[in-house]
Amino acid sequence: MDTSGCTFMKVIVPVKQVPEVAEVRINPETGTLIREGVPSILNPFDEYAVEAAIQLKEKLGGEVTVVTMGPPQAKEVLLKALAMGADKAILLTDRAFAGADTWATARTLSEQIKKMEYDLVICGKQAIDGDTAQVGPEIAELLGIPQVCYVRHLEVEEDGKFVVVHRGTDEGYEVVRVKLPALLTATKGLNEPRLPNIMGIMKAKKKPLEEVTVTTLGISPDSIGLKGSPTTVRKVFAPERRKGGIKIEGTDPKAAAKKLVEFLASKGAI
Amino acid sequence: MVLIYDKEKCTGCMLCPKVCNFGAITKDGNKVRFDFDKCVLCGSCQEVCPVNAIKIERKAVDKDKIAQYKDVWVVCETAEGRVRSVAYELVTKARVLADNLREKVVAVLIGSDTSSYAESLIQQGADKVLVVDDKAFADYTTDAYTIAVTSLIAPRKPAIVLFGATGNGRDLAPRVAARLGLGLTADCTGLEIDDKRQLVQIRPAFGGNIMAEILCPYTRPQMSTVRPNVFKPRERDVSRKGTIEKVEVKINPVQIRTRVVNRVKELAEGMKPIDTADVIVCSGRGIKDPANLTLPTELAKLLDAAVGGSRPVVDAGWLPPSQQVGQSGRTVCPKLYFALGISGAIQHRIGMSSSDVIVAVNKDPEAPIFEIADFGIVGDLFEVVPAVIEELKNLQSER
Ligand SMILES: Cc1cc2nc3c(=O)[nH]c(=O)nc-3n(C[C@H](O)[C@H](O)[C@H](O)COP(=O)(O)OP(=O)(O)OC[C@H]3O[C@@H](n4cnc5c(N)ncnc54)[C@H](O)[C@@H]3O)c2cc1C
Ligand SMILES: Cc1cc2nc3c(=O)[nH]c(=O)nc-3n(C[C@H](O)[C@H](O)[C@H](O)COP(=O)(O)OP(=O)(O)OC[C@H]3O[C@@H](n4cnc5c(N)ncnc54)[C@H](O)[C@@H]3O)c2cc1C
Questions:
Q1: Which runs of consecutive H residues, i.e. helices, occur in A171-270?
Q2: What are the Cα distances from residue A18, in Å, to A93, B348, B398?
Q3: CATH topology assigned to domain B2-57
Q4: A9-223 has which CATH code?
Q5: Chain A closest-CA separation from residue B244 CA (Å)
Q6: CA-based Rg of chain A, rounded to a whole angstrom?
Q7: Which among A212, A244, A238, A23 is positioned nearest to A111, based on CA atoms?
Q8: Mean pLDDT of chain B
Q9: Which ligand minimizes its atom distance to the CA of A103?
Q10: What is the DSSP letter of A39?
Q11: Residue ranges of the domains in chain B?
């Protein structure tokens, strides 16, 4: 490990608490989401971001701050990130933040980040509940820094002034060089996020965790939360449930293949 | 607070907890209680309340200002000097929306040496094409493209701007939205115009477990990224006429803060990316050995399909990451999807369950993939797939 350490990386990682969507089910009678008993987790893509930040700190020296905007219980994901090895946490929590779309979310987070010193901001590629992948680029724009999305590999150049990353594309990846400060969004392949160990979990409780409200953030409540959101969710509904169709069992492969090809031709799929 | 609940008016009919998708309303004696940490203020409860006991206060809409914005724009993505198919899909859809509004379709064509495609966009349904043709746009960069798109939008005031929900589209659109202070709806699978001439944007969220209708009532343009392969391009009309306007956008090299040092293709020669493919042949752990991938690859060749993999197949390094289907990979919606030796875990289904036709081959009759397959074959893929290849070859030689 290189600890020559004249580079000192200050990394901010915005993280989101999300329901484990794989366990979210629709109530067949009412057609609504069943969220009772569905565990809340640290957004999986944000784990890559936290891990990347911690690895940079371990290699180059530095400091990792995790930030979340959410209800009071979102503190849990901050504690998890602290247990993994982040140094500090900030919880932006206030009724006035509620109902935010991605623009209002990015605005709130960027106002907080503007008050801090940083070389890198690393977001997850996307949150598995809202699924928009918009908050990262929007924060970058509001901070006026460059962005590179879908980062699969990350290296800091020797002088600590540039990073070279692999940005996933449709057919492979691009090697992109960008000057710091910059914002990256992390995707699968960047690393294998560590599991917090007992020591980490104990230490996490003693690490600084600051709570910030609209008042302490010092921005107008009109520009954030539902009021500051240009988009509104008018309605949510259950998608049409897909049902199984034809199922062939116990037929010899040739006959089954014939039926399949006939079926596909009848559907106009081939 | 923006949701106002009038306890006095509430009759305790308990309709609202039933329609709340977020479990934010619970019974409280003979009234209800709201959990604002869960509430997303979607308004479903307000809609069903028979006595108007629930009110969501929203901002006023400035009608005069909004009326200044006209036309439906499509930002057409180019790659390697060509217009990508998603652009034609969006122009087709934009045509429908614009006809509804009695407005024009404007295609925005940014690239280097791509202006010759302007004509094809008119044939597809555009009334006008704004062409920005400059070396600075040869390769996609967030900075150059954001400058170009925002400098076109700001003075010309379109009512709607659509982007393809591709990797680059989802990198560019939020940057543009944030620069102009606009709303943006992600990854839409449905677009409609309502009776107030607003764009109703329909999109899946929560991994496809719910659908949401999203509006941008207060700001213009209304912007969305739209999932590829959802809207089928209609046939081109070669006699269609339209105007082509060349626009110059000056980019100073220092404005581009990222530099692409190298491009690496991980897809073998002739292999297609899964993102925009019409047909995908996807293999799971049932394929057992990377050498066996020749089988799905042969099937894919016959169908002009992309070869994809479930997570274990990609994690093992048998296929590149760009080809992974599912929650931590990509969401796809091809016309035809083959799941070969894939059990159908929820994280996989999240990425493919909106495909038009799903075919599954699995030797386990209980595999969950059969619950969503239009055509399932219980059997050994190493016997079934060669037979399917054989049949397809027969069919193709007949044709
Ligand atoms: C059904 C539904 C549909 C929606 N559709 C849209 C839409 O189309 N457009 C829109 O603008 N809004 C939409 N919203 C609102 C949106 O989900 C919220 O604004 C949400 O707070 C952020 O969006 P996301 O979950 O998509 O995050 P993403 O943009 O996918 O998140 C990317 C990354 O940003 C960071 N991040 C995101 N949220 C936070 C946070 N709260 N705290 C710290 N870091 C964070 C994380 O690093 C995360 O990995 C929708 C909401 C619902 C309920
Ligand atoms: C946070 C998270 C994110 C994830 N993201 C993804 C993702 O993006 N994509 C994804 O795919 N998974 C993802 N997963 C993993 C997912 O849960 C499953 O583990 C995975 O999809 C299983 O892959 P599989 O179906 O190929 O393998 P298995 O589940 O092992 O299934 C193999 C199937 O092959 C069948 N089979 C075996 N031999 C034959 C044969 N000769 N002929 C026919 N059938 C045969 C078996 O009956 C079995 O059904 C994620 C998991 C988590 C927790």
A1: 198-204, 214-217, 253-267
A2: 15, 19, 53
A3: Alpha-Beta Plaits (3.30.70)
A4: 3.40.50.620
A5: 30
A6: 22
A7: A212
A8: 94
A9: 1
A10: P
A11: 2-57, 63-255, 279-398
Cα A141 to Cα B339: distance, rounded to the nearest angstrom:
40
CA distance B220 to B145: 20
Q: Are B395 and A35 a contacting pair at CB < 8 A?
A: no
Is the Cβ–Cβ distance between A152 and A190 less than 8 Å?
A: yes
Whether B63-255 shares its CATH topology with B279-398 is answered: yes
User: Does the pLDDT value for residue B1 go beyond 60?
Assistant: no
CA distance B159 to B262: 38
**What CA dihedral angle connects B250, B108, B140 and B152, to 10 degrees?**
40
Q: Which amino acid is at A264?
A: L
Q: How many CB atoms lie within 10 A of CB B232?
A: 12
pTM: 0.93
**Each residue's pLDDT tens digit, B379-397:** 999 999 999 999 999 998 8
Q: Is the confidence at residue B71, as pLDDT, over 80? A: yes
CB neighbour list of residue B132: distance below 8 Å, 6 or more residues apart: B108, B109, B110, B111, B148, B152, B246, B247, B248, B249
Interchain CB contacts (distance < 8 Å): A and B: 325
Encode B263-291: b = buried (16+ Cβ within 10 Å), e = exposed. Answer: eeeebeeebbbbbbbbbbbbbbebbeeee
Q: Which atom of ligand 1 is nearest to the CA of B186?
A: 8
Domain boundaries, chain A: 9-223
CATH architecture label of B279-398: 3-Layer(aba) Sandwich (3.40)
In this structure, which residue's CA is closest to atom 14 in ligand 2? B347
Contacts of B173 in chain A (CB under 8 A): 134
Q: Span A174-200, mean pLDDT? A: 97
Lowest mean pLDDT segment, chosen from B33-37, B63-67, B179-183: B33-37
Min CA distance, A86 vs chain B (Å)?
A: 23
Task: Give the burial string for B49-58 (b: 16+ CB within 10 Å, else e).
Answer: beeebbebee
The CATH superfamily label for domain B63-255 reads HUPs (3.40.50.620)
State yes or no: pLDDT of A146 exceeds 60. yes
